[in-house]
Amino acid sequence: MKRQLFLTALTITIGLGSCTKESMTADYGVIPLPNRIESTEGDGFVIRNSTAIVYPKENGKLQKTAELLSEYIAAITGMELSVTPAEKRGNAIVLKSNFACPNQEAYSLTVNDSLVTINGSSDAGTFYGVQTLRKSIPACSEGKQVLLPPVEITDMPRFSYRGMHLDVARHFFPADFIKRYIDILAMHNINRFHWHLSDDQGWRVEIKSYPKLTEVGQWRKETLIGRAGKDNTQCDGTPYGGYYTQEEIRDIVQYATDRFVTIIPEIDLPGHMLAALSAYPEYGCTGGPYEAATGWGIFPDILCMGNEKTYEFLENIFSEIMDLFPSEFIHVGGDEAPKQHWEECPKCQAKIKELGIRATKKHTAENQLQSYAVQRLEKFLNSRNREVIGWDEILEGGIGGGATVMSWRGTEGGIEAADLGHDAIMVPHHTLYFDYYQSEDQANEPLSIGGYIPVRKVYEYEPIPSVLTAEQVPHIIGLQANLWTEYIHTPEHVEYMLLPRLAALCEVQWTQPEAKNYENFLCRMDPLFRTYDRLGYNYAKHIREDSKVAFEKAKAVPQTAGQAELESVPVGLSE
Question: What pTM value is reported for the model?
Answer without folding.
Answer: 0.94
